[in-house]
Amino acid sequence: MPVAVQEQPTNPIESIKAALTNVTVSETKEAFDLLSYAHFDATPSIGTEFRSYSKDGKPILSIRDILGNKDREKALGKLVSERGVVFFRDAVISPEEQIKLVDSLGKLNGKPSTSGLHVHPLTLGGSEFGDEVSVISNQFVFDNKYKRDDFSVLKRRFHADLWHSDITFEPVPSDYASLQIRQLPKVGGDTLWASAYEAYDRLSPAYKTFLEGLTATHIGQGFIDILKKNGGTFREPRGSPENVGQDLSTVHPVIRTNPVTGWKGLFVNRGFTKRINELTQRESDVLLDFLFGHISANHDLQVRFRWEENSLAIWDNRSTFHTATEDLDSDKRVGTRSVSLGERPYLDPNSTGRREALLKAGA
After folding, report:
1. How does pLDDT run across 287-305, given as a tens digit for each residue?
2. What's this protein's family per the entry (predicted)?
3. What residue segments make up the domains of the chain, in order of their start?
4. 47, 353, 27: which is closest to 192 by C-alpha?
5. Half-sphere exposure of 104 (CA within 13 A, CB side)
């Protein structure tokens, strides 16, 4: 289904659409056909993996075949937005190349010129890989200054509570992100992703209509609590002139349109979404509890990825949720994450769900 475009955009939503002229759901003539390479869909609704070997005679696609080539990077960004998350095995890539890749995916697929790469509010200046790479570890929170002591079995957090989309507490949150685990545990530490498109499609028509009239407040409360305990201030600006302030709080629509696909998705997450603004507190608590359970309990909208050496995951934060599996005890898991910023979230009333769009396109 084509993303609607007007000749003279008059607002931010139309500006995003104008940047995506000729991007369609059913488009078959790509400058670079990613799916002609050895790959498989991990589940029907989310996740595509490019093989490190070929079972069907198709050629192997390496991430190095894509880096620095605009046509190929644009095609990759479109596929990530459609499938939610894309995996590469044997992906030799540096943290600096991760930064360039996710920034390029966003730029080539229409993100505003004011959106750069996110600087996490807890990242300390002078970190090993620079401000725009977050070090992900089960031993600390973004920097050794903020060590964790909750990784033993009796202190582990309840895993249904860990589902989130990156940095939705920012006015301009993430579009694309990438992660490579560079210090692997002996076993465990898998990551799961869930499809916001499929979460939306699994709701009744009446519920969809109800939710599309609502907004939610997102707060980075966990990071606020860490700062209160340790002192200091949050980094700012954080990759966009709008991502400033010390309260880590903003408002987003409950249902969001992905500008690359034109598909609607559920846009609340247990990590950061704290209140449905149009409801009473009790109504909000009940509704959010249902929606959070809707994401975490439905395995048919999830994919689970087991990390290997040089595995790379690239996902679209606008249309997915994810969580790590904290099952490592004292074993270490360390990776580098890069996060690109996109546009302010919006709901286009003319957009549709993924299943409806694919049905209309005959896919």
Report:
1. 999 999 999 999 999 999 9
2. Belongs to the TfdA dioxygenase family.
3. 27-361
4. 47
5. 18
Residue scoring higher pLDDT (4 or 33): 33
**164 included as an active-site residue:** yes
Query: Is it the case that residue 334 has pLDDT exceeding 70?
Result: yes
Tokens 């190095």 appear where?
A: 64
**Architecture, CATH, for domain 27-361:** 4-Layer Sandwich (3.60)
166 has catalytic annotation: yes
Residue 359 token pair: 């049905």
> What is the per-residue pLDDT across 236-293, written as a single tens digit (0 to 9) for each?
999 999 999 999 999 999 999 999 999 999 999 999 999 999 999 999 999 999 999 9
Task: Report pTM.
Answer: 0.88
Q: What's the farthest any 2 CA atoms get from each other in the chain? A: 59
Asked if 252 is an active-site residue, the reply is no
Catalytic choice (103, 166, 316, 348): 166
Residue 11, CA distances (Å) to 17, 89, 251 in order: 10, 41, 19
| 322 has catalytic annotation | yes
Complete DSSP assignment for 100-167: HHHHHHHHHTT--TT--B---TTPPTT-TT-TTEEEEESSBEESTTSB----STTTPPPGGGG-B-TT
For the ranges 124-138, 163-177, 183-197, 314-328, the lowest mean pLDDT is seen at 124-138
